[in-house]
Each structure stands twice: as structure tokens, then as C-alpha cells.
Amino acid sequence: MNPPSGTKSSSENNSPIPLTELHQKIDAGVKIAIAKALDRHRKLGESISIWQDGKVVTLTGKEIPQPPSI
Fold first, then answer.
1. Main-chain phi, psi angles of 52, to 5 degrees
2. Percentage, residues of the chain above pLDDT 70
3. Which uninterrupted H or E stretch holds 48?
4. Using one digit for the tens of pLDDT, what is the confidence trace for 21-42?
5. Residue 17 CB partners (closer than 8 Å, separation 6+)
């Protein structure tokens, strides 16, 4: 459905959405969970599938990149 004339849809709004403390905690938790899952797959040699350059690509455990060191 198109937005009413004269209003912008959320995809057209260029101003960033302010993150509340809860959103920040959720975002951090999701990032930690993803990092742990990738590490587990890498260590066990299990493959993962990712979206890359407009298509699904499967990476072997050895192809999963190491996270950047902190």
C-alpha cells in the first residue's frame, strides 16, 4: 500500500531511528549469538549458508572468516 500523498514511507526517511536502551541490548545480544554460532560452526567444520552478491552461498567450516581481533 502506498503512503498518503505528501508523506514519506519509512524506507524514504533518511533520518536514523534512535535506538532505545532495550534496542541496544537486543542488538548486542543478537551480535553475540551470531558470533558464537559462527565460531561453533567453524570449530566443528560445519557449513553455513549466507546471502552474498544477490545469491545464497554455502561456506565450509574452513571458509568461515575469523572475527576481527579486538
1. -145, 130
2. 76
3. strand 48-52
4. 899 999 999 999 999 999 999 9
5. none
